[in-house]
Amino acid sequence: MSSTNELAEDPGSPVDDTREQLQTQAEMDSFEKDPHELVANGFRPVWTQGDGYPGPIPDDIAAFINPDEQWNKTLRLVGPMSSLCWLAGLDDFVTAIDSPEITMRDEVLPIPINASIRSMLPHWYDSGKIPGPVYKNYCLPPPDLSVIAFPVRPVQIPGPVTSTVQQHNLRDLFPFCRQQCFPGQIRSVQISEHSQIERVCRDIERDVLPSLGGGNFLFRGLSRRGLVSSMACSLPVISPHHFDQDFGPGIYTTPSIQLALRYAAPQGTLMVFRNTDFRSLKVWELNARDWSVVTRYWTGRTLSNPDQQCPDDWDSADVMSGPTTSPGPRRHEFLVPGDDTQVVATSYPAMFALARSLALIIWLA
Q: Where is this region: Disordered (predicted)?
């Protein structure tokens, strides 16, 4: 299996030319090679939302794809980790997958519609899919100097949580939580995970949400360790590699269960917020121009005179609401509004309002 390291030895290779053009870290993180080049370079093809799969879909990739196309709208890519890493220029990971000295499975993984491959590295690392020594090479600053703080030990589903929705004291589930902002009691449940995400969505809508008695819901998908950290400090996790954060730093939620589940790492969690009270806060619903300016800036796309284009509402908004991003017709050069909405808490009052409205935690088992 070839890699970009081998190709780069040719001084006239297009890989060298491309890398010279990527001047900023943001550009490097959002840049991806053309999936049509995978087979020629010794890698398995991937499924893409735009082109599908070149031939009969293998079972391991088909497990993530549903014949009903509406369920596939939150997916951008599905393919083996080696192919995805090659597309993103993650040569160390390609080498690690091939190496008999490193235990790293070349499993098939999905990439959400508004995420780059590199932006998924924290999720992959957190779920044990990539080795720490290799992952640290792609963290600036390294994890021990960044704002991220995760418990070292694996996080298990708390003993009191069963397959039945039940009320629990928060401290019984999270011994090191800080309860200033969260309710003293919340409901919790574990449900079976399935590669067909629509089945999980239906299970949640049919068997879990009715226990809350209706209302307006926002969902946040994250790993188990990310959940434990969030319960200790209700603040956004800030990382230089989270380039799927279209609106900049903040706590990202969505009314879409399906989209939130895409961001819950395998065996992850779903935070369910009910009737969040933003009435005393400024909620900024981005118009088309503001959406374009904000997403281009925070995803590293070219934006001329950003100091003159910052929208007036940027300073004063507590909550930002608008469409997710989706790749435009020219792959990653342009972004277009996606089908789902994201609601982002960007101020302390908004984050505390979210915390107060936490009604349910779903554990994927």
A: 1-35
Nearest to 30 by CA among 337, 291, 244, 262: 244
Per-residue pLDDT tens for 135-185?
776 665 444 444 445 555 678 999 999 999 999 999 999 999 988 889 999
Domain boundary among 145, 175, 190: 145
Assign residue 267 a region: left if phi > 0, alpha if psi is -120 to 50, beta otherwise?
left
Global model pTM greater than 0.70: no
pLDDT in tens, 209-248: 999 999 999 999 988 888 998 898 877 655 544 445 789 8
**179-200 burial: b if 16+ Cβ within 10 Å, else e:** eebbeeebbbbbbebeeebbeb
Q: What is the CA radius of gyration of the chain?
A: 21
User: Rounded distance, CA 344 to CA 252, Å?
Assistant: 5
Partners of 300 in the β-ladder: none
Each residue of 307-322: b (16+ CB within 10 Å) or e? eeeeeebbeebbbbbb
